[in-house]
């Protein structure tokens, strides 16, 4: 079965390569041409338009920046909705608003095109390794159909519920991670400026109720002033924006997510947008006029 | 060596019992008499005043509600400072402001009395089991002297640094736990009201970067509407208040700790002060006018 792949960015390219490596036939498109040529050299068929991908493949993967891009590719003129055969399946692996995912799905369904939302976590390193975690939403039969294809790119593929629920799980994940990074930053800045050794405080609390994967991964980065991403502040701002849009759309106030989004926004203003999200501690350092070190 | 013990509350009583069980001779005092009688029945010497404890013991443990109570017992008229022999060692195991701990220590040192701050985490169940975690601050020699006594009450005893640093570690712990509980509440409330199954979202994200000890311990309580403490909201408000006082005293703004303290304060107004701190999700349920269930 030929698979369509649209969106060959930092994540899309390695994901597409893993599809090729696992023996799938892929036809791909990207707005800028060099990434398409690179995939063609790796064995994919190069397409000159979304229409060409949509006409050639019955299962089409999209990996795009955000909701508007997915809406344009799926529903815009010359898009998937115009050119895919009835019965085709769109697997959108972008991280977008769950409400947008439901809306796009509803529109495609009217044209007899099915859709799953299947955002990933793990970032570029796990995209390269083929060990992403996929959180999928949609009909069970559609999920079962896409599963072997998703497994070529992921270590874990879980169906969370119906359309949109994949992105809801992703947003829940991003809220917990962002706020937890801020909590850790707040705690370590207080500890250090109040005169304790932040490394010893980290060692003292990591084994108890305060312990977390964020603490294990990010406290050492904060204390070593290592800001290499990982996951970039600019992308976390995007995800928190989608969380807040979803909260507004469904009637769920998110005061801490909004606060942390604004902290990240302040860091972006200071040119830290491309740093790892653990650089959030620099927001606190600026507030406290103090530099946290081991 | 006879050990003094002042403060026989929910935590102090089982801690004192574990000292007796491990063969230590204990002289104890408490403001209300029944707890003293109970310890006397368990083998302790009952004292009628702080002065009597301070005169009889060279190592005195205090386990009191907060900074003002410790200051009064240590420095007030008829207190430890007035009656303990030069060279005595106060081991304050209360959770208090680190700045207050340093201040009390400084005053006691002028009277040739030494001090450690050694707050604990683990709550009543671990106090009963004798498996508390102690985070201690003070001179290494004083720590070494107190260590065998502390080990009769704790599974883990760590010296974090100098006087006050034990309470700094405790506050760092309490900040991370409180804010992480709020993050989890925010994420699960959004997930549920936006239409996903919060149990499946929990299962989908617990293994990744969002995973934490708080999530493992508290998400099931939130989804089962179990509010049995554990650790009470009223006590967490006290600890966050000490964190914010310390932030004010040392120049470290703590915007998220302050927000979560006010959320807990709102729950106290609604009579949830004696509930487990995971009942924080009810603050979000009230905001969202929605009840989160499995």
Tell me what the structure shows.
The structure is a homodimer of 294-residue chains. With 294 residues, the first copy, chain A, is an alpha/beta fold. Helices cover 54% and strands 14% of the residues of chain A. Chain A is built from 14 helices and nine strands. Chain A has helices at residues 12-21, 33-41, 50-56, 67-75, 80-83, 98-109, 123-129, 140-151, 165-193, 198-205, 213-224, 233-250, 255-269, 281-288; strands spanning 2-6, 25-29, 45-46, 59-62, 89-92, 114-117, 120-121, 132-137, 154-161. In chain A, the strands form two sheets. The first copy, chain A, has a six-stranded parallel β-sheet with strand order 3-2-1-4-5-6, sandwiched between helices. A three-stranded mixed β-sheet of chain A has the order 7-8-9. Chain A is elongated and about 65 Å long. Chains A and B meet through strand 8, strand 9, helix 9, helix 10 and helix 11 of A and strand 8, strand 9, helix 9, helix 10 and helix 11 of B.
Q: How many individual β-strands of chain A?
A: 9
* End-to-end separation of chain A: 54 Å
- Detail the poorly predicted runs of chain A: none
User: Mean of residue pLDDT of chain A?
Assistant: 97
Largest interface: A-B, 73 and 73 residues
Order of helical and strand elements of chain A: EHEHEHEHHEHEEHEHEHHHHHH
Structural class of chain A: alpha/beta
Shape of chain A: elongated
Largest sheet report of chain A: 6 strands, parallel
Number of helices of chain A: 14
Spatial strand arrangement across the major sheet of chain A: 3-2-1-4-5-6
Strand content of chain A is: 5-15%
- Determine Rg of chain A (CA atoms, Å): 21 Å
The helicity of chain A comes to 40-55%
Instruction: Name the quaternary structure.
Output: homodimer
